[in-house]
Design goal:
Number of domains: 4
CATH architecture of the largest domain: Alpha-Beta Barrel
CATH topology of the largest domain: TIM Barrel
Strand content: 15-25%
Number of helices: 17
Largest sheet: 8 strands, parallel, barrel
Bound molecules: alpha-D-glucopyranose, calcium ion
Number of strands: 20
Structural class: alpha/beta
Helix content: 25-40%
Shape: globular
Amino acid sequence: MEQAWWKEAVVYQIYPRSFMDSNGDGIGDLNGITSKLDYLKELGVDVLWLSPVYQSPNDDNGYDISDYRAIMEEFGTMEDFDRMLRGIHERGMKLVMDLVVNHTSDEHAWFVESRSARENPYRDYYIWREGKDGKEPNNWGSCFSGSAWQHDEATDMYYLHLFSKKQPDLNWDNPKVREEVFSMMTWWCEKGIDGFRMDVISLISKEPGLPDGEVLPGESYAVCPCANGPHAHEYLQEMNRKVLSRYDLMTVGECAGVTVEEAKKYASLDGKELNMVFQFEHVDLDGGKYGKWTDRRVNLREFKQVMTSWQTGLEGKAWNSLFLGNHDQPRSVSRFGNDAPEYREICAKMLATCLHMLKGTPYVYQGEELGMKNCPFSGIEDYRDIESINAFRTLTGEGKIAPEDMLRYLALRSRDNARTPMQWDDSVNAGFSSGTPWIMVNPDYTEINAARELADPDSVFHYYRQLIALRKQEKIIVHGVYELLEPESESLYVYTRTLGEEKLLVICNFTAGEEEYRIPREFVSGSVLTGNYGRTTVEETVCLKPYEALVIHTGGQA
Ligand code: GLC
Ligand code: CA
């Protein structure tokens, strides 16, 4: 059991645009974040991860960066940033920055140079190819619909963009690009930040020759076969030698397409690359023919299988990150649970228990600690997200999905569900802004808001606070070895954690019905560590209430 602060930590993700607006322009900003640091301290989280705050034309809300060493004007100034960082450190918390280096904005100075002429010294910073028979160089599709190639008039060639056409991919095979990225990272480390969350870092090494990919039935383009490319590990090891190993950092790689085997390399405990990765298998389980645009629900047995393969697969070899939501996913209580008024709170607490008792570093996405749920968007004009808007246009335009069905899928799955303003209180705009918010406020804010939950000891907020505090007291939550029980159950997720003589039993009822469960013998004499119904005693057979979570501790001292 090797200790490390990033294993013991709980991370809180802030989506700055939607967290707190300090100047009434309807857009969250850095001074807004600074004004809420005491709230985050009270919750007890250790690390704040900020989605990008760098200068950006905001084609993809900051994931398209035009200057890595400047703050987005709408978010404030570098002085505001420095003040926020000091405020975070004064409270004993740490700051992790989003590092978006698979691509830049097309407005970044490197790309402006690069596109200007074939002989420009920056040409090779990006991926340029000639067309093939008057068409794109290959059949790869962009993650935001359409081709991954954009024709550029100036030099009559195409550039690669795995995301929007305003997000050209950097050419990581060019050593100059890597040096630029490493020196920029060093600059931020010297400023005193505490780590990086690395955006789609598994995509940086493209297959040599950029071969065509497989086009799935009904699709117009191939899913880009770029994940875990031939040099991905080599480049991250170089980054580690030249930057990461020189500072005391936490690093997490967003790794689309990562498998357990690959994750053991990215996040190996030998520390040669990253501390941990975000994997996506559990949030891909409810996908369908058109990817996420469906109303399928996650099947609990499959969910347990996936979580278990990561828990046992990485045991002793690499470290897991644990999440149910982020700025790219719908609200977890709506998606994995039940957001009907009678169940929302109890269910949010159950999901939190289930996740935080697993082995790995837990991530809380802003508003999740309040049990915030999906937003009742109505028309396409309510959406702001480029992925959602492009998908709506393309899939309805090609007649693949009827508009009313697509709107239903968007309401369930759009990334904008997670991007509505944080709900601070029941005043106008949920206390987020005195101006007009850049995206609609979820009308349920009069019921669901931080002020109300802070005042109610039984709230989802205080349940999260207690869960986070428990992690500080019980080493077994951080270091215990995981084992799945009842793999076949369609309604219960039951697992144990073991550390020496100590054991935890975690039982989560994922249904709105009552469920009987016979407690394994060794736990019958145990004590209740936590739970969402205030149960205090352990019986041989428990009748679990709807969405009940119960954690029993045995051996050692409770
Ligand atoms: C990551 C980000 C997402 C962004 C994409 C392109 O998946 O989390 O928000 O759109 O990368 O940068
Ligand atoms: Ca603002």
